[in-house]
Write a structure and sequence with these properties.
mainly beta; six-stranded mixed β-sheet; 2 helices; 20 strands; about 5% helix; about 50% strand; globular
Length: about 260
């Protein structure tokens, strides 16, 4: 129907990255409102024309099909080239059609997308400065996938964290050949900084909310602030390239009572 629709995109693949564009033949790439990632509303909507997703990343977008007359055909296309499991390469048009959308009827629409969505509480610089820092390096060693040069041992935690505390986790990909989407179970974090090849790069607006999947492209480091709230127990962090995960690129961490 020619009204607003909220679409949730999930990269449920094993090793493939996607870069999605909404295209109307003869009219080119169409804009949409990006409102949420990884299950969380952003502080404000972001107008975008494409969205790149690593494995397990999610994105909620709102498309206003009221802009199009009945009979319009649109396609969601993937323009991300990737021909091996190392990770994405370049982006090229026209891309591969993934989803066909036909505007076939009219419908009333009283919905709206507020400019402000869900405010994020400001981070306290003093709390961040006082937080313990853990460095996690995701790399390939002797043909195996490792975190800090070790394989997963499910019987032994690599970190023990007190419930109610907060930490800064440095997620590091030293490789110039592989990409790693890192999934932290149990809790979500907020990106504090991002570097590529040792140089600071801006954090895109759609990555400034709470997230639980952090895509480490080649030679990328992210500093992520995480609070460990609510529950105790055993949890994992792993690369969501499943061939990496299944070959032991994972760590167990335990949240213990205070």
């Amino acid at each position: 129907a020619n009204r607003k629709h909220r679409l949730r995109l999930l990269n449920a693949g094993t090793t493939r990255f996607y870069d999605f564009y909404l295209v109307a033949p003869g009219k080119g790439v169409q804009p949409f409102r990006y409102i949420a990632n990884d299950g969380n509303l952003l502080p404000a909507r972001v107008i975008m024309k494409h969205i790149r997703l690593g494995m397990a990343e999610r994105a909620d977008i709102v498309v206003n099909f009221g802009r199009y007359p009945v009979g319009t055909v649109l396609y969601l296309v993937n323009r991300q080239n990737q021909d091996d499991t190392r990770g994405p390469k370049d982006v090229q048009a026209p891309g591969t059609r993934v989803l066909k959308i036909i505007v076939d009827r009219t419908a009333p629409d009283t919905s709206r997308v507020p400019t402000a969505l869900r405010p994020l509480p400001p981070l306290d610089p003093l709390e961040i400065e006082a937080a313990p820092v853990r460095r996690w390096e995701f790399a390939r060693k002797s043909g195996m996938w490792t975190v800090n040069d070790r394989l997963i041992d499910v019987t032994s935690p690599r970190a023990e964290i007190v419930k109610g505390s907060a930490e800064v986790w440095e997620l590091v990909n030293p490789s110039g050949g592989w990409a790693h989407p890192i999934h932290i179970h149990f809790e979500e974090g907020r990106i504090l900084s991002k570097t590529v090849n040792g140089f600071d790069v801006p954090i895109p607006a759609h990555e400034q909310g709470r997230k639980d999947v952090f895509v480490l492209d080649k030679t990328t480091t992210m500093r992520v602030f995480v609070r460990f709230r609510d529950f105790t127990g055993k949890y994992v962090m792993h690369c969501h390239n499943l061939s990496h995960e299944d070959h032991a690129m994972m760590v167990r961490f335990d949240v213990k009572p205070d």
